Amino acid sequence: MAALTAFILSLIFGPLLIRKLKELKVGEKINKADSLKLDDLQRHKQDTPTMGGILILATVVISTLLWADLAMRCIWIVLFSTVWLGLTGFADDYLKQIKKKASGLPSSVKLTSQIVLGLILGIILIMDSAHSSRIDIPFLKNGFDIDGLYILFVIVVIAGSSNAVNLTDGLDGLAIGIMVMVGIAFSVLCYVSGNINLSEYLLIPYIKGGGELAIFCASIVGAGLGFLWFNCYPASIFMGDVGSLALGGAIGTVALLIKKEMLLIIVGGIFVLEALSVILQVGSFKLTKRRIFRIAPLHHHFQFLNWHENKIIVRFWIIAGLLALFTLITLKIR
């Protein structure tokens, strides 16, 4: 019901938001002077309404508030994290689109926002007597405790997941399609983690309130499918940073709450590869003045290899679906 609610709300309010953004002239600007070829490949996206993440954020929050048990502390934690990063992304998009500041919010400010959020979440979690600093490792029955490094670990998870989704959001429907599959996988992970019998059978930590987090993840699935209705190729709207930063941070927070942080690397494998491609490209160029990829992030590299945009998107979706399936299989391979 949470997924269905978010989906229907997206279908109802999507056209209204697209119309309003067009009236306000809030559209994508293709002027990346660092790559004229990329500008040419993306030229058809010029002035397509952006900041559509507002729709995702609103429908996820509304659906969660309607269907989840609000007495559960974990629900408020994940909503707080999602809205925090949503507002950070909104500030970036606002500066770009409304104030016409091409660079938007400085990268240092966005990173500081993510670090502060990670610090807050780390403190909240470490103070929770029911939440340990133990890290659950896929394929193994026993994890390990990182003690005093846990808060730093939380910061890395939040910043990493948020930025990885942000970097992937470059082709029509790419990021949101992958996020739907991640959301489905985490809905299952949350449900089994919140069921004392299933968690005991699967030898994973029992998380009180995990079932309610499954409702939040289902809201992401529904909102994602509703947004994909308008964002699929050729896109009528883009999510912008208000959507990508919030979704990345949301799934990172869920992973922390149910102690499935390491599985985040598998289920979000495409996001990880996209982020790594940027890190490797920048590092290689600074050290050797050579580029590993034609261009980064990775999806643009395949565009430069003359793959059609739709082919890249669908193939990345296929890989993401297989990774989501493999993530669920790890529950039994222990």
Layout: helices, strands, pairs:
Layout (H helix, E strand, L loop, with lengths): L1 H22 L12 H6 L11 H15 L5 H25 L9 H21 L6 E2 L8 E2 L4 H19 L5 H20 L2 H7 L7 H22 L8 H18 L5 H5 L1 H20 L9 H7 L4 H21 L5
Antiparallel strand pairs: 1-2
Helix pairs in contact: 1-3, 1-9, 3-4, 3-9, 3-10, 4-5, 4-10, 5-6, 6-10, 6-12, 7-9, 7-10, 7-14, 9-10
Strand content: under 5%
Give me the Rg, rounded.
19 Å
Strand-pairing-aware structural class: mainly alpha
Number of strands: 2
Measured distance between first and last alpha carbons: 32 Å
- Shape descriptor reads globular
The side-by-side strand order for the widest beta sheet comes to 1-2
Q: Give the helix tally.
A: 14
> Main β-sheet, in a few words?
2 strands, antiparallel
The helical percent reads 55-70%
Low-confidence segments: none
Architecture overview:
The chain is mostly helical. Helices cover 68% and strands 1% of the residues. The protein contains 14 helices and two strands; from the N terminus they run H-H-H-H-H-E-E-H-H-H-H-H-H-H-H-H. It has helices at 2-23, 36-41, 53-67, 73-97, 107-127, 150-168, 174-193, 196-202, 210-231, 240-257, 263-267, 269-288, 298-304, 309-329, and strands at residues 134-135, 144-145. Strands 1-2 form a two-stranded antiparallel ribbon. The protein is globular. The mean pLDDT is 93.
Task: List the keywords.
about 325 residues; about 0% strand; globular
Q: How would you sum up this structure in a few lines?
A:
With 334 residues, this protein is mainly α. The chain has 14 helices and 2 strands; from the N terminus they run H-H-H-H-H-E-E-H-H-H-H-H-H-H-H-H.
